[in-house]
Amino acid sequence: MLKSLRPEVENAITTRSHTALQKEGEYLTVKVEAKDTVALRATLNAYLRWINSITNVFEILKRQ
Fold first, then answer.
1. Which ranges constitute the DSSP H helices of 15-36?
2. Domain limits of the chain?
3. Whole-structure pTM over 0.70, yes or no?
4. Which stretches within 1-64 are classed as H helix?
5. Which has the least CB within 10 A, 8, 11, 20, 35?
6. CA distance linking residue 12 with residue 49, whole number of Å
7. 3-state SS, residue 33
8. Half-sphere exposure (CA, 13 Å, Cβ side) for 6?
9. Rounded to whole angstroms, how far apart are CA atoms 59 and 10?
């Protein structure tokens, strides 16, 4: 999953937030810093949607 999200971190569209990803064992840590709560919420929502989509794809592939 880390490889899937890395392009989003490296090519951020905005300067209002900064995201760092770190793999800790089986867990993925997403660290978000933002200049305001609107940017924080938008960034978190985007990453949560991407993570959910990637997880869904992995589940579908696992069943096949």
1. none
2. 2-63
3. yes
4. 2-10, 37-63
5. 11
6. 16
7. strand
8. 6
9. 26
Structure tokens at 6: 């890395």
DSSP category for residue 11: T
| Joined tokens for residue 35 | 């200049």
Cα 25 from chain centre: 17
Measured between alpha carbons, how far is 24 from 42 in angstroms, rounded to an integer?
A: 24
pLDDT at 32 over 80: yes
How far apart are the C-alpha atoms of 18 and 15, rounded to whole Å? Answer: 7
**Contact assessment for residue 14 and residue 32, using Cβ atoms and an 8 Å cutoff:** no
pLDDT value at position 61?
Answer: 93
Q: Can you tell me whether residue 27 is helix, strand or coil?
A: strand
- Rg (C-alpha) for the chain, rounded Å, is 13
